[in-house]
Amino acid sequence: MTSIPILMYHQIDASxxxxxxxxxxxxxxxxxxxxxxxxxxxxxxxxxxxxxEPYLNGTRxxxxxxxxxxxxxxxxxxxxxxxxQANGFTATxxxxxxxxxxTNAWDRAIGVPEKPLMSASDWKxxxxxxxxxxxxxxxxxxxxxxxxxxxxxxxxxxxxxxEQLIGAEVRHFCYPxxxxxxxxxxxxxxxxxxxxxxxxxxxxxxxxxxYELPRIMVAxxxxxxxxxxxxMTNYESKRS
Length: 240
What we know:
Layout: E1 6-9, E2 11-12, E3 26-27, H1 29-41, E4 45-47, H2 49-56, E5 64-70, H3 74-86, E6 92-95, H4 120-128, E7 132-135, H5 148-166, E8 172-174, H6 182-191, E9 195-201, E10 213-217, H7 224-232, H8 235-239
Parallel strand pairs: 1-5, 1-10, 2-3, 4-5, 5-6, 6-7, 8-9, 9-10
Helix pairs in contact: 1-3, 5-6
């Protein structure tokens, strides 16, 4: 397997005011459209974690990029989905199974504006459009700050709840806040997931641990030249 970049996005929306906490996690729709078009023009196929599986395990080869979204914001459906479809790409959105139709209230204490998360019907629309649904726990729990029993429930029950919602298997997990221990890695394996992604910077190489996959963050300030470096070179791995 050649190295594979897995992109990490959060919100695709209009820019918050300067000084807004976590402003960097909001990529403008126009920028996202340019990024997807760039990938297409350069010969890359943007894939969900589900569609990326054979490339990760080495049974297929190709010029591919994983595309992931954390948290399940409604703006992923309204702004990201059209750009993905326009380029024939798929993507994985990691949902929070007990916050459907609610907001990113976990960020309230640090002053991040609350934005709507996808509702049950929105998730079905995402899935029916050929996109993949992954799990981001039940409540966006920081796994290393809760009991082992709660962590196990957050990981396992969220999978079941999302599967019941979309009527399909949920095979991929993402650790909220990028916080986890080896005990949590084992819980993810025990729950039946195929991969888990982290916030650790870098590309996926031969021999990478499938339950601790690194990703490449695409931020508000990621201009197209930097995006190209992140995707096409070992820039992220060298900076990890």
